[in-house]
Structure formats: C-alpha cells, structure tokens
Amino acid sequence: MDLAYLLLINAGVVAGCMLSLWLVSLWLKDASIVDLFWGFGFVVISWVSLLFAAAPTTTAWVTTILVTIWGCRLAGYLAWRNLGHGEDSRYTEMRQKPGRNFALFSLVVIFGLQGVIMWIVSLPLQVIPTLDASFSPLTPVGLLLWLIGFSFESIGDYQLARFKSDPQSHGKVLDQGLWHYTRHPNYFGDFLVWCGYYVLAISFDASAWWTIVGPALMTFCLAWFSGVAHLEKRIPNRRPEYSDYIRRTSSFFPWPPAPKEEAASVSPHSHWPTS
Prior knowledge:
globular; disordered C terminus; UstE-like; transmembrane helix; membrane
C-alpha cells in the first residue's frame, strides 16, 4: 500500500477515535479520559497499519506486538490509577476558567491536539509495515532500547504506586530505586521505547530516517511540554522536600545523585540534567 494513503487512513482513524472520545467526555463531564486512551491509541494505529499493509513481514508483526504490550500496559496502569477518582485536576482547572466554552476548547486543545501529536509520534510505527523489512545489525539495538525503556517505565510506575500506597509516604518524596537516579524514570523509559521504534524503522530501511520527527516530538513533550516541565511546577507545592530532590537528582537521564554540598549550588528549576 502507498504510504501516503496509509498515513491518511490512520489520520482518519485517529480523528474518529478522538471525536468519539470527546463525545463520551461531554457525557461523563470528565476530559481526563483522554489520558487513558493515549497508550491504547498507538496500539490502534499500529494494528491498522499492519492490517492495511499489502504483505506484512514478520518484523512488522513483532513491532506491532511490542506496541501492543507497551500500550496496553500503560492504558491499564492509568485506568487502575485514575478511574473512580473523578476528573484530573489539570482539566478541572481548565474547565473552571471563566469565559471559556469548555466543550469546544476540549475538542480542539485537549482531544484534537493530542490526536495530532499521536499521529506524528507514531510515524515510525506507520512506516514499518510498508517496508520490505529484514533484520540488520541495528535491529537488536532497537529491540534492546525498547526492552530497557519498557523496563524503566514498568518498574518506575510499580515503585511509585507502591510508595503512594504506604500511608507513611504522604507528603514525602520517592528517592529510592530507579527514582534515586532520575526524577522521572517512567518518562525516560518512554523516551527509550520510542527511540527503539525509530531504530527498528531505520534498521529495516534507511529511507525511513525522516520518521525521527516522531520520537523527537515525543521527547519534546516528555521533557518540556506536558511531562517533566509541567509536572514539576506543581509537585513542590505538595511536597516541600521536592526542591531539594530536584537539586540533587538528574531530571531525565539516570545519573548518580549529586553530593549534598554540590547539590546546594544546582538550580532547582533545571529540567534537563546538566551532569
């Protein structure tokens, strides 16, 4: 199948999913359901790409299975964490701003924008089933990046969930396990997962180099847009110890924490690690 046609099909699928999800959010009065669809949306895109491919290869099937494992784990974790707790405070704050037609705002800014980002980020996944793929020396590198990233995400989420379930942890900061080396092991893991998909794409065909815009956009979102930068504007207000944690711990890439004397001179507003 022509790649341009496949990209158009996926754009329509994503638009249909986001429009349906938006209508459900109006009924539930809960825009945060968009977060639950984030991981699963890539599963949908990957399977649509595979099923519309003329003759999907074994490598295309393997990539789709990896995406399914990653996306379903993320969607399941977010559903377990969020369902039954009402709308996320981020969306509630948006809803309460005066003079705003929130229904239209959420369609364009929340559901529409997320759909566009999802479609762009997934470019390596959309391209892989169209390639006459065969294993190359880069293929194991892509698989290893995916495995390390998936492990970081899964273990980081597990450690955080276990920490939050302990009543004695209320108001405290998790700085053990993977969180001892990076303030956001789940985001770093996500970054590696998408690097893995990209490396798989170019390992099958170097002409897929241009799909780097997908993982690049994901990295931007994780580090500066909706991930680290957004989250760390809010956490210090709830956990006074977090400013000190910022000073001594790498923001994104895992790194041994700085000694207390050195940490005192580090800016608490640094989002990308300087060490």
